[in-house]
Amino acid sequence: MKVKVSVPGIYVLSRGGKEELFVDGETALEVLRNAAVEHEKLLGKLLTDAASLSGQVSVFVNDVAVDTHENLKARLREGDVISILPSDSGGNEMKRRIYLNIPKDIVGEPLLFQVGHEFKVVPNIRGASISDDIGLVALELTGEEQELDRAIEWLTKKGVQIEQIAEPEVQNQENVL
């Protein structure tokens, strides 16, 4: 199936002046491989080899970060949109990993949807256990530090308990959570 791929203006020369590409593929990895073949100048920016993302880009499927090999191999659905952004958008972008403890009275609210739309951050659920009584979420937020702080403050004011996840000192952080 053809999937819409949005690539930022910084790569305009790499894609022949096109703002959007339509590329065949059943998984994000297939789409990225095919985009790299169809638009050769993107190859060095997208993939380091046939199965790994370059450190120069961040990939999102429908605004959800796709940052592990397993996520890249997940099947796409009709209408999915892949966005490719420079990893260092704006120079101040960072990732913050946190645990959320969502109480019973707000567990049904679309908190992460609101965070993604109210603040300039991208929420990526790394793990979760949700019931009618409580929500426990391991979350990675990507954005500029000020926006991350604002989003976390908003969640706290809503009644969510937040705990920072300490980053282990390992070379391969692909499977941290």
Summed up:
The protein has 177 residues and is α+β, with helices and mostly antiparallel strands.
SSE series: EEHHEEEEHEEHEEHE
Strand content: 35-45%
| Uncertain ranges | 168-177
| CATH class division of the largest domain | Alpha Beta
Radius of gyration of CA atoms, rounded to a whole number: 17 Å
Largest sheet: 5 strands, mixed
Helical residues, percent: 10-25%
From the helix content, strand content and strand pairing, which structural class follows?
alpha+beta
If you consult CATH, what is the topology of the largest domain?
Ubiquitin-like (UB roll)
Specify the CATH architecture of the largest domain.
Answer: Roll
Total domain modules: 2
Adjacency order of strands in the biggest sheet: 2-1-7-5-6
Spatial gap, N to C terminus? 32 Å
What is the average per-residue confidence, as pLDDT, rounded to a whole number? 78
How many β-strands, per DSSP? 11
**Helix segment tally:** 5
Question: What is the 3D shape?
Answer: elongated
Explain this structure to me?
This protein is about 25% helix and about 35% strand. The chain folds into two domains: about 1-85, Beta-grasp domain (Ubiquitin-like (UB roll), Roll); about 90-165, 2-Layer Sandwich (Alpha-Beta Plaits), CATH 3.30.70. The protein is of the alpha+beta class. The protein has helices at about 30-40, 45, 70, 110-120, 145-160, and strands spanning about 1-5, 20-25, 45-50, 50-55, 55-60, 65, 80-85, 95-100, 120-130, 135-145, 160-165. It has a five-stranded mixed beta sheet with strand order 2-1-7-5-6, covered by helices on one side. The chain has a four-stranded antiparallel beta sheet with strand order 9-10-8-11. A two-stranded antiparallel ribbon has the order 3-4.
